[in-house]
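Incident log, structure service

09:12 report received: a user says their structure output differs between two submissions of the same chain.
09:20 pulled the input from the user's history:
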Amino acid sequence: MHTDQLIACPTCDVLNRDQDVKPRTVARCARCGTVLAAPKSGAMTRIAMLSLTALILLAAAAGFPFLELRAQGLSHQASVLDAVLAFSSGPMAPLSLATGLLIVLLPAARYCALIYTLAPMALGWHPAPHAATAYRWAERLKPWAMAEIFIIGVAVALVKVSGLARVGLGPAFWAFAALLVVTILTDNAICRLTVWKTLRARSAS
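09:34 re-ran on a clean worker, output below:
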């Protein structure tokens, strides 16, 4: 059997026979049951639109006020960019850079890579130049794009801060909350094996 007819399970590394999987059908590893393919009708269009939505939400979340603190007659509003720039000099500069990368820049780069890879194929066109490289980077960036982790951490911190000051949630907080939902929907809609097969088939035609 040729190697192109085999799929390695990402969990247990056993080789499975590569077969065409119909939409709404799930192909699992014969040994451990890991999902290898779960294609969905119109998934590429859905992922591209969700990624574009996520980019818009991310821009809003970064620029609009995130929190407003009120204590003893004083109030202060801060956005995510304000928080990043507040520590951009001195010994906290590396933390500031990491925050900006993990919360804003890397998620934005991942969504741009998904749009670049999937939008042309969703329209029935040939893949864009270097689309395979862009999708490979989108997969590599996934563990490092932590916008959704940030909103969970903020929710935990709000419980402690609420005892010291009155906290008001700004538009950016709700944008991040919506971004969390969109990210989950995007990741659930992606069938990596189907994307790679489509890239290979469209590039060869």
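09:41 both user submissions now match this output. Likely a transient worker issue. Closing.
09:42 reviewer note: Residues 115 and 128 are 10 Å apart (CA to CA). The chain has seven helices and seven strands.
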